[in-house]
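Sequence in, structure out.
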Amino acid sequence: MQPPKSDRAHRHRAIKGAVREYSLTCLSRTPTTLIQTRSTTKRSRLALAVFLAFAPPASPQRASPRVDAKALVLTGAIPLPNVLGRIDHLGSDFKGRLFVSALGSNSEEVLDLAAGIRAHSISGIPKPQGVTYSPEANQLFVGSDEGKLYIYDGTALDLITALDCGDDVDNLRYDAASKRVYVGYGDDEAGAIAVVDATTNQRLPEEFKLRAHPESFQLEKSGPNIYLNLPDLKQVAVIHRDTGKVSRWSLTLESNFPMALDEANRRLFVVTHAPARLAVFATDSGRMIAALPCAQNADDVFFDAGHQRIYVPGGEGYISVFQRNGADHY
C-alpha cells in the first residue's frame, strides 16, 4: 500500500526517523504459524502472513467456535539483518517460503520457514510493494512503487523480465484457474487493474479503469467478481471480470485499505483507518452488517475460514482478533 503522492513526503519523513533492523517473531496457534516483526516500525504488518499462506484446508464450520484464551503464542524469531525502514506486503509459494517486500531496503526477502532463516535476498527492486507467486509457472511477481512489475524464476530467483505499468504497482493477486496475475497500479484518474498472463509474461489488452488508485483487492474463486478498496473515493468497487462492469458501494467510513473475503458466506471484510474499524459487508448487496473497533493503521487483514476468525494487525504493534459466532455475530 502507498498513500497518495501528495501524502508520501510526510510519510517518508516519518519513516526515515524510525529506521531500524527487523527480526520476525514467530507466533503459533494450532496448527499454523504466524509471523510478527519485533521492530516497532510496521511490526504488525508481518503478523498473520504465514497464518494465511500456510493454513491447512478449512475444517467444517462450527456454529459457535470456542475462542481460545491465547489465540497467538510466541514460538521463535527469524532475524532479518540489514533490512531497514518500511516493509510492505507479503506472499508465499505454499511450499515453505515467505516473500517479504522490504520497501525501505529496495529488496525482496525470501524466508525459509521450516529452517527459520532468511534463505535469499533479491536486491535492486525500487520500493517493492505487492508480491505473489504462480505455482504453475513457478514464477515470482513483485510490484514496484516506481511502476514496474518484476518477474523472477521461482527456483533460481533470477530476473526473467520487467513490465512497465506506468506508476505505483501495488497489490497483486494470482488467479490459478486462468493463470493470470491481476495488478493494481496508477494514481488518481489513471488507477486501474491490469492483467498479465503468467504463462507468457505478457500484459493482456484487458484492463479495468477505476479513476482512483486501487488498494487491497480480492478475487472470487467460484465467481467472476473482484472486490477492491478505493480509499480516495471512499468506495468499494466490484468488477465483473467477464463483462467488465464496475459497480460501486459508497462508504461512510474513511481510508479503507485492507480487505479479506469470506466467499463461502458471502462476506467481505474491510478495515478502515478513520475511524479504525473492521467493517463487514454482504457481497450480494453491499450492505454493511457490522463495524467493530480494531487496531489502528492496519495495512492487511486475514480471514481464517477453519476457525472463523479475522485478524487485523495494526501499525502500532497490536493485533485485533475477531471470532465469528454464528450468522453475523462477531
